[in-house]
Amino acid sequence: MNDPTVLPTELAKTVINPHAYAEWNDLLDVFDHIRTTCPVAKVVPEVEGLFEPFWLITRHEDVMRISKDNRTFLNNPRPVVFSFNQAIEFSRAATGSNMLVDSLVVFDAPVHPKYRKLTQEWFMPRNLTRLEDEIRALAGRTVDAMIEAGPEVDFVEKVAGPYPLRVVMQILGVAPEDEPRMQMLTQHLFGGQDADLSGSGMKDMTPEQVVALVAGAVTSFEDFFAQIAEDRRVNPTDDVASVIANAMVDGKPLPPRDMAGYYIIVATAGHDTTSASTAGAMMALANDPEQFARVKADRSLLPGIVEEAIRWTSPVQHFMRTASEDVEIGGQQVKAGDWMMMNYVAANHDPNQFDDPRRFDAARSPNRHLAFGAGAHQCLGLHLARLEMRILFETLLNRIEAVEPAGEAKRATSTFVGGLKTLPLRIVAG
């Protein structure tokens, strides 16, 4: 292709290849090249009809602009996550929607602000303070279990995975014995592209079977949370599950599909992303003994550890938007109806915004990252994520004297939600 706005085929393949996101440094090299040569570039399929062409947005300033302008850049009508046409058609046939799950993530105004308002106060810091003692106790038990299993442990398996899962399941009223099921379904939903996480022999599956696996996870989630909602309507408590179950919008209860979507987004995004950020921070500290010693001696750096981990890891790797009108972005003419990818991995490693962006720096300031999004769709649970990560690292720094790698860390194969799936560490307890 001679059109300079169209990304060369090999680069385009990398952008949509889940395996590329497991090779982090190589991926960042690719995004550095794209951001420098064509920061707003058209990605077109090598095979016609494989997916809808879209604009790839890689600069921090452009992603920030799109995130904050929810009138010009819509979550609907196209999917908010990159999807092949085959998957979109499957979803439409199964649910009547472009997405298998309808949730806060996919709604535009006027629906989105009404739905967000239902739980926004619940997730504000002044409400979350009442959870601190419970979260601190959970962090203590988690670190105890890690130390008991050591000195060599897989940090993802022992800490980064189970800890945020338990926090979110508690606020949703999910019993501990159901947590393994919730973890499995989350991995099917977000980790379906990764054969290890999906646990399904995915490498031998056809695209239709992969989509069916994800659809099955959605159905299981819906059935499970329908029972939770029924119980909370009869026996309401002060948890967020009760808020959702008894919510009213325009004088009416939430439709069953919308209610299920609300539960699913809290249950899945609420722990999988925090798990990835937690593991990312621990890997960075294990690889940098001087920085570990610095944060152990100076706890004022704890908020910096959290923010830097979230930026550096960028667990939510992209979201899609659709232009509602003709608009210019980064010197390119985007037409009404065009699809675009806000790539958070690229934006959060933009050297025009972050000095030496590949370096993990707990003292980085300012740190205006986009890992929580921005504007009206900024992550609803960002305060909870910050709270539970801060408490966990307080506990870890109190209990361990040193940490170092004990093997190869591996990232998940995924274009959407990603992060470490294994992190072997050697722990020296204090």
Description:
The chain has 18 helices and 14 strands. The strands form 5 sheets. A 5-stranded mixed sheet has the order 1-2-10-7-3. It has a 3-stranded antiparallel sheet with strand order 4-14-11. It is globular, with a radius of gyration of 21 Å. The protein has helices spanning 9-16, 24-37, 60-68, 85-95, 111-120, 125-128, 132-149, 155-160, 162-171, 179-190, 195-198, 207-234, 240-245, 256-286, 289-297, 302-313, 344-347, 382-399; strands spanning 40-43, 54-57, 73-74, 152-154, 248-249, 252-253, 318-323, 327-329, 332-334, 339-343, 400-405, 410-411, 420-422, 424-429. The protein is α+β, with helices and mostly antiparallel strands. 50% of the residues lie in helices and 12% in strands. A hairpin with a 2-residue loop joins strand 8 (327-329) and strand 9. Helix 14 (256-286) crosses helix 16 (302-313). It starts with 8 loop residues before the first helix and ends with a strand.
Q: Which strand order spans the largest sheet, edge to edge or round the barrel?
A: 1-2-10-7-3
How far apart lie the N and C ends? Answer: 60 Å
Give a quick account of the main beta sheet: strands, pairing sense, barrel closure: 5 strands, mixed
Determine the number of helices (DSSP H or I, runs of at least 4 residues).
18
Average pLDDT taken over every residue? 91
- Computed over alpha carbons, the radius of gyration is 21 Å
User: Roughly how much helix do the residues carry, as a percent range?
Assistant: 40-55%
Runs in which pLDDT lies below 50 for 5 or more consecutive residues are none
Structural class computed from helices and strand pairing: alpha+beta
Strand content: 5-15%
| Shape verdict | globular
Question: What is the β-strand count?
Answer: 14
